[in-house]
Write a sequence for this structure.
């Protein structure tokens, strides 16, 4: 039906050209954001999830241990990027996609929402204490 409409309007080449020129930048931007997100996820997966080393940030307050997850840290960075715009907005969007890829790596762990943890687990040097899915 669309093809018949194009013939009827006698604008086959011009209409197709305008559709490609108008919509292609939006698709390319989406593909770029997805690629940057997947790149961030791949780096975080390789450097953190598959690493035999224990990588965590722990806050000790009033003799209690709190695990500051990657998603908390990177979410604060994302919020500060948008609240204090120091870069062009397109670079902030790209950096946000990368950081969201790093945030998504935390979904591989079962304890993603467990912030308070026993100090005995915190100060264990083995990575076997992690609960991976």
């Amino acid at each position: 039906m669309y093809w018949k409409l194009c013939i009827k309007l006698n604008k086959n080449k011009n209409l197709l050209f305008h559709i490609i020129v108008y919509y292609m930048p939006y698709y390319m931007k989406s593909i770029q954001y997805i690629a940057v997100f997947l790149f961030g996820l791949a780096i975080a997966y390789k450097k953190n999830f598959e690493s035999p080393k224990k990588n965590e940030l722990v806050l000790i307050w009033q003799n209690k241990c709190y695990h500051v997850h990657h998603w908390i840290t990177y979410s604060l960075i994302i919020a500060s990027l948008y609240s204090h715009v120091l870069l062009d907005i397109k670079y902030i969007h790209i950096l946000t996609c990368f950081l969201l890829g790093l945030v998504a790596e935390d979904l591989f762990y079962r304890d993603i929402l467990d912030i308070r943890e026993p100090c005995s687990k915190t100060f264990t040097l083995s990575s076997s204490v992690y609960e991976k899915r």
